[in-house]
């Protein structure tokens, strides 16, 4: 059905409005990061920088100086914790999702499993803090990887199960008739078919772990384990706040997940759509 001119104008107008609403804050963050300090404190606010200042990016990406050391340490810790938790969660979620989908495991157990992520994070802080403190594991990236894995596992299992449900069972049955075991079938048959779902689950899990702030704030206290969200808060905690530095850290912090999203865009879209329709 062909759209009328008015409908087309409304459709593209809404699309442009949505694009401006979602990209506007990010664009303003980029402008702040290259604006002079006086531009950010003028009244009325100067929307266009009087001069371009890239010195903040130079200092943040340099090992010489406090800002660079703080940022690069936090970047390393965020990559280790988010990436490690995502990989471990996927390794555990894929066989669990297969069991729930193909072996008719109890759905009550699955819902109970999923209910753990519905509790407020603060309810877990005291037992987790006491446990990690008794083992001397506070202020370690391994601690955050364990916490993030537990946080991501129910979500990853649920999303993978929804996608495995729509995969053709006949292909797996053919593999079983040829003498293949369950582990071989999952590795050689299910995983190639579920690759879009795995990419979507990995991307969403990585974003959740990358942006997590509460547990990282509670369980870390120095550069050896602090992640980027906590480091950004530290940059804004001084007596004299340089908003341009905070904006520069924010821009750099968006690059890793943005690069991953662009690289796996095709898989992410198809993976999310595949689990929504049963054929």
List keywords for this structure.
279 residues, mainly alpha, MetI-like fold, 2 domains, 13 helices, globular
Written account of the structure:
Its main location: membrane. Keywords: Cell membrane, Membrane, Sugar transport, Transmembrane, Transmembrane helix, Transport. The protein is mainly alpha-helical and 279 residues long. It folds into two domains: 1-53, no CATH class; 66-274, MetI-like (MetI-like fold), CATH 1.10.3720.10. It is 72% helix and 0% strand. It is globular.
What's the SSE blueprint?
Elements (H helix, E strand, L loop, with lengths): L4 H29 L21 H6 L5 H37 L4 H9 L6 H13 L6 H24 L4 H9 L4 H12 L1 H17 L2 H6 L8 H8 L7 H21 L1 H10 L5
Helix pairs in contact: 1-12, 3-6, 3-9, 3-11, 6-9, 7-8, 9-13
Structure at a glance:
The chain is 72% helix and 0% strand. It has 13 helices and no strands.
């Amino acid at each position: 059905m062909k759209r009328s001119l008015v409908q087309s104008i409304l459709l593209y107008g809404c699309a442009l409005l949505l694009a401006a609403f979602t990209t506007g804050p990010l664009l303003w963050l980029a402008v702040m990061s290259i604006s002079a300090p006086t531009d950010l404190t003028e009244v009325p606010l100067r929307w266009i920088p009087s001069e371009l200042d890239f010195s903040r990016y130079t200092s943040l990406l340099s090992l010489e100086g406090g800002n660079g050391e703080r940022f690069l340490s936090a970047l390393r810790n965020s990559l280790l914790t988010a990436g490690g938790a995502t990989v471990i969660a996927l390794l555990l979620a894929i066989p669990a999702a297969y069991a729930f989908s193909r072996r008719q495991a109890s759905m009550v157990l699955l819902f109970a499993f999923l209910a753990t992520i519905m509790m407020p994070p603060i309810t877990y802080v005291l037992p987790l803090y006491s446990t990690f403190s008794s083992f001397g594991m506070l202020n370690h990236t391994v601690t955050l990887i364990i916490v993030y894995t537990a946080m991501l596992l129910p979500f990853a299992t649920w999303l993978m199960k929804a996608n495995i449900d729509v995969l053709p069972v006949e292909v797996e049955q053919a593999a079983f008739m040829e003498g293949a075991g369950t582990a071989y079938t999952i590795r050689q048959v299910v995983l190639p078919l579920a690759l879009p779902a795995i990419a979507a689950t990995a991307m969403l899990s990585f974003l959740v772990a990358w942006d997590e702030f509460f547990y990282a704030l509670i369980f870390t206290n120095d550069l050896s384990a602090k992640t980027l969200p906590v480091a950004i808060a530290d940059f804004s905690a001084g007596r004299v706040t340089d908003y341009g530095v905070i904006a520069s850290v924010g821009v750099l912090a968006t690059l890793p997940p943005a690069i991953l999203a662009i690289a796996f865009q095709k898989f992410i879209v198809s993976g999310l759509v595949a689990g929504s329709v049963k054929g």
